[in-house]
Amino acid sequence: MPLSARAGLDAVPAYRQGRSAPAGASKLSSNESPHPPLPSVVDAVQERLAGIHRYPDMSAAAVRAQLAARYDVDMAQVTVGAGSVEIAAQLIHAVAGAGDEVVFAWRSFEAYPSLVRIAGAVPVPVPLDADHAHDLDAMLAAITPRTRLVFVCNPNNPTGTVVDAEALERFVAAVPRDVLVVIDEAYVHFDRSASRGAGIDLFRRHPHVAVLHTFSKAYGLAGLRIGYAIAPTEIAEAQRKVAVPFGVTDLAQAAALASLAAEKELAVRIDEVVAQRERLHAVLTAAGWPAVRSQANFVWVPAGERTTELDELLHAGGVVARAFAGEGVRISSGSAEDVDRVEAALAASAPASDAVAALEEVSA
Ligand SMILES: *Cc1c(COP(=O)(O)O)cnc(C)c1O
Question: What atom of ligand 1 comes closest to residue 227's alpha carbon?
Answer without folding.
Answer: 9
